[in-house]
Write a structure and sequence with these properties.
heterodimer, A: mainly beta, five-stranded antiparallel sheet, three-stranded antiparallel sheet, B: alpha/beta, Peroxisomal Thiolase, Chain A, domain 1, ten-stranded mixed sheet, two-stranded antiparallel ribbon, 35% helix, globular
Chain lengths: 133, 383
């Protein structure tokens, strides 16, 4: 019998424990490999969700380069000191991530190539040299 | 099974009503809507109250002030679609025969936050990375300008039209006409969206009475039939999404038209979710009011204003009338009730017979929006 069809009140199975998704360790995090920055994101094979510990979800490595789909510099925010720039970045493998964007604003445009980078404990993207020229 | 009809509607002028509680905002339109239907509070069978920030038991806090109790009261939160979701549920309950008379309320008080951007749910991962609603639409705007090779002047023209319409609406929060130059010169909120391209912060409340066939016949009032009512949630993806083709709105509109047995070409008047200037352009296409890629010319050629193919946001829309989140879906329907029953005054769309309302609530990672509600309404009797 499928154990999911017969829930038991006698024990607390591991798969129905709360997910500590508010822990920093559960968020997209960066790793350094060969001098480049990569992100670790949880994702299913179908790209439908990227919630850690969801059935079938795995941590995958993305980067270091992606394409900036769109971006905006935020001047009024209820959550963070302004101004700051955020943008959606598309990485190979059909992974889209909202990222902090740094670098000279004139170099930013839709569809420009950006590269993952990090400073202290934060990761972000910045336009690659080709996009600046 | 019955059909469902709106026989009365009311709202307060949108604005900054800091000295009013949620009850203080909503009781006047509730009383007006009940009286307008020729009903007594005891004749209401159920209450559906949409709000996003009202806290616990908002509906009960309102209707107890008019002597309504004991009957079921449903409090509905679905972000910007809260009020329209409440109407959707009332429509279902009347159509199913569960209730004969339902009171639908939309209410919210944004001045409680003291200004700034709407507080999104802090535990959402994109919010933690700095997402706010203006930024979401600003990214959509930047992509639109990039792909369509348009300038910010086009975005500003949406605001100019909204203010021109809103100037005729005594219920609108922003009634002063504006210009492209003024819109572009206003304070930057989230590049490229300036202040006058963003809906104002404010408070509001609206109410409608939804009844079944028998009650409609008994009351004999100017009536609007709800011939399409659709509620969708966003589809999750962690990959590419075309921000200029919001599938939640496209699919909601498609299903609503199918339910109503009509097409976009049959619609005379629309109240759509123009929370930011870019939204109106994107939703022209998503609702089928024009073809893909045609939204710019649809606006600039005057097809979406008085004298055009369809009048979009005669109330001034969210940009001018205001956008008290949970209120907006019901306020749109009140406007449509007035338009389709010939009660819209200076902003009356001539010979309006079929109307559409659209609200969509966003601010959640990996969905294009969280909830979207589309209603199609048809005039039955005119004053």
């Amino acid at each position: 019998m499928n154990p999911d069809q017969c829930p038991s009140g006698e024990s607390t199975p591991n798969e129905v424990q709360p997910i500590a998704d508010l822990d920093v360790a559960e968020q997209p995090s960066f790793v350094m490999l060969g001098g480049a920055t990569f992100l670790l994101c949880a994702q299913t094979a179908e790209s439908r969700r990227s919630f850690p510990h969801t059935d079938g979800a795995q941590r995958i490595k993305v980067g270091p380069e992606g394409v900036l789909y769109s971006f905006s510099t935020v001047h009024v925010s209820s959550s963070q000191p302004v101004p700051y720039t955020i943008g959606y970045v598309d990485f190979p493998g059909d992974v889209r991530v909202l990222a902090k964007v740094r670098g000279p604003l004139p170099a930013l445009r839709c569809d420009c190539v950006v590269r993952l980078a990090n400073e202290n404990s934060e990761w972000f993207v910045e336009p690659v040299a080709e996009a600046i020229q | 099974m019955s059909r469902a009809y709106i026989v009365s509607g009311a709202m307060i002028p949108m604005g900054k009503h800091r000295n009013s509680s949620y009850s203080g905002l909503a009781v006047p339109p509730v009383c007006k809507a009940i009286r307008g239907a020729g009903l007594e509070p005891r004749e209401i069978d159920a209450v559906y109250c949409g709000h996003a920030f009202g806290g616990m038991l908002t509906g009960q806090r309102i209707v107890k002030e008019v002597g309504i109790g004991r009957i079921p009261t449903f409090n509905v939160e679905n972000a910007c679609s809260s009020g329209a979701t409440a109407l959707h549920l009332a429509w279902k309950s009347v159509c199913s025969g569960e209730h004969a008379v339902a009171l639908v309320i939309g209410v919210d008080k944004l001045t409680q936050f003291g200004g700034g951007t709407l507080p999104l749910v802090a535990e959402d991962i994109e919010v933690r990375y700095g997402m706010v609603m203006p930024a979401l639409y600003a990214m959509r705007a930047r992509r639109y300008l990039y792909e369509r090779r348009e300038s910010v002047d086009l975005l500003a023209q949406v605001s100019v039209k909204a203010r021109r319409h809103g100037a005729m609406n005594p219920f609108a929060q922003m009634r002063k006409p504006t210009s492209v130059e003024e819109v572009i010169a206003s304070r930057m909120i989230s590049d490229p969206l300036t202040l006058l391209q963003c809906c104002p912060t404010g408070d509001g409340a609206a109410a409608v009475i939804v009844v079944n066939d028998d009650t409609r016949k008994r009351l004999g009032l100017p009536t609007v039939e709800i011939c399409g009512s659709v509620l969708h949630s966003g589809t999750p993806t962690s990959g590419f999404r075309n921000m200029l083709r919001p599938e939640i709105t496209r699919e909601s509109a498609r299903d609503a038209f199918e339910q109503a047995g009509i097409g976009p070409q049959d619609v005379d008047v629309v109240e759509l979710h123009d929370a930011f200037s870019i939204a109106e352009l994107v939703y022209y296409e998503a609702l089928g009011l024009c073809g893909d890629g045609e939204s710019a010319s649809f606006l600039t050629s005057g097809q979406s204003t008085f004298g055009g193919a369809v009048v979009v946001n005669p109330s001034g829309g969210l940009l001018s009338k205001g956008h008290p989140v949970g209120c907006s879906g019901v306020a749109q329907v009140v406007e449509m009730y007035w338009q389709l029953t010939g009660q819209a005054g200076a902003r009356q769309v001539p010979n309006a017979r079929i109307g559409m309302t659209h609200v969509t609530g966003g601010g959640i990672a990996r969905l294009d929006h969280g909830a979207c509600a589309v209603h199609i309404l048809k005039a039955l009797d005119r004053i």
